[in-house]
Amino acid sequence: MTRDAFEDLVRDALDDLPEEFARRLENVAVVIEDEPSPELLRSLGLSTRRDTLFGLYQGVPLHLRGASYGNVLPDKITLFYRPLLQACRTPDHIRRQVRTTVIHEIAHFFGMNDRQIRDLGY
Fold it and tell me: What is the pLDDT of the chain when averaged over all its residues?
C-alpha cells in the first residue's frame, strides 16, 4: 500500500468519528511516521527486538486540562506506517487496523487507559 493510500485511510478513520467526539478534538495534530525509533520504544519500556507500536498519543488528556490550559503546543497522535503494513495481510485488514489504532489513540486523548480501551475492543 502506498503512503498516499495509507494517509487516505487515516483521513477516512478521522472523518468517520462521531461528531460528538470529533468536535472535541482541539489542539491535536495527527501525523504519520514510518516507524517508531528505537529510542522511543526504549523510553516506553518496549524491546527494540520484540515490540513495536502502531500508534502513540502524546499530550495532556482532555480531562486533565484545567482553566489554565492554553498557549501550549498541540497534542500529537502518531500513526506508524510500516508496523501497520507489516502486521496486516490485506488492504481490508490494514483499513480495519488503522481505524482501530486511530480510535485507540483518540481514546487516550479523552483520558482512557490501555485497559479501558482494550475492554472496549480497541
Answer: 92
